[in-house]
Design goal:
mainly alpha; hpI Integrase, Chain A; 15 helices; 2 strands; 57% helix; Integrase; DNA recombination; Integrase_catalytic_putative; Integrase-like_cat_sf; DNA-binding
């Protein structure tokens, strides 16, 4: 058991720090298994803890202080983040759901929770993209890279290039084993995205191969050059993933916004739209293409391929990147 004190004690017996207590309670709840689920909930819990400690938050460091009003205030904060374009609806709903789950694990009951995250946020999530992805224009990407370079954000620039060239998620780009991937590009003409993937989709049991064209090779070389000494990825030796996000990636997001790029996930969508056009010779639906009307089988095959390359393996998710079938 992860309990470090009496159940009625601080953080319901899970330690003195709110940031530590949540993940420990989740490990207990899932009996030491379901690592990816625990990790996802824990990451979102840390976002809640950061809010608690911020100027906007209540300043709590003990889960016993958290009540329904606290959660309603957090939901209001997330609503504001959505309106400002800092968060998408799905991310905000996931954060509220994870706070519900973690609080239940800490308390041992469900007396303090947001009954309906979607209602609390006042918005329904949509899984179909209706606006064109930022970053499809390679000139825009170059401007982003130049702006990042001017502020010595070479590692963040490497993330931008990798996400746009390969469709990697932020975590995948940061943790990618660069020497291995470069060897694969050289010997096989394609790369296998295996590091930092979601839901345990790593290793030989879940291959995710991407063709290594010239754009991919350039992105990999740029990332190798930006990689710290004696590191295989974009993290310095002894640097944690969380510290890199907080101290390096977060400050650089402002540069992205100044160049009209909402976030790294937009680059993943830009990659998907470009791949759709390569596979079908038609623009992606969100860009005005109508392949799904002209050749539905071709549209279906392209969506299936893009699903595999993005690491979802669910064809319905692709609509969130390239648009739906009207």
């Amino acid at each position: 058991m992860a309990l470090v004190g009496r159940r009625e004690g601080r953080n319901f017996g899970y330690g003195r720090q709110l940031s530590y207590a949540g993940p420990q309670a989740l490990k207990d709840l899932f009996a030491g298994g379901h690592f990816a689920t625990v990790k996802a909930h824990s990451d979102r819990w840390q976002a809640f803890v950061r809010w608690c400690r911020s100027e906007d938050g209540p300043g709590y460091n003990d889960a016993r202080q958290i009540d329904r009003q606290t959660l309603q205030d957090y939901a209001a904060y997330l609503r504001q983040q959505i309106q400002q374009g800092e968060l998408c609806i799905a991310t905000a709903q996931n954060r509220l759901s994870s706070v519900n789950r973690t609080l239940a694990a800490l308390r041992g009951d469900q007396d303090v929770r947001i009954a309906s995250p979607s209602q609390a946020l006042g918005q329904q999530r949509s899984s179909v993209r209706t606006h064109a992805a930022d970053g499809q224009d390679h000139q825009q990407v170059r401007r982003v890279l130049e702006a990042l370079g001017e502020q010595q954000h070479e590692r963040v620039a490497a993330i931008v290039l990798l996400a746009r060239a390969t469709g990697m998620r932020l975590r995948e780009a940061i943790l990618a084993d660069l020497p291995r991937i470069q060897r694969e590009a050289k010997h096989f003409g394609r790369i296998n995205i295996q590091d930092g993937t979601k839901g345990g989709r790593s290793g030989a049991s879940a291959p995710r191969w991407i063709n290594a064209n010239e754009e991919v090779k350039v992105a990999l070389q740029f990332a190798r050059n930006a990689s710290p000494p004696r590191s295989r990825n974009l993290l310095a030796r002894g640097e944690s993933y969380a510290a890199f996000l907080q101290q390096t990636v977060l400050p650089a997001r402002e540069v992205l916004h100044e160049q009209g790029l909402k976030g790294f996930h937009e680059l993943r969508a830009a990659y998907a739209c470009e791949r759709y056009e390569q596979l079908t010779s038609h623009a992606a639906p969100v860009n005005g293409g109508h392949c799904y009307r002209i050749d539905r089988d071709l549209d279906q095959r392209a969506r299936q391929q893009i699903s595999l390359e993005l690491g979802h393996n669910r064809i319905d998710v692709v609509s969130a990147y390239i648009g739906g079938r009207a």
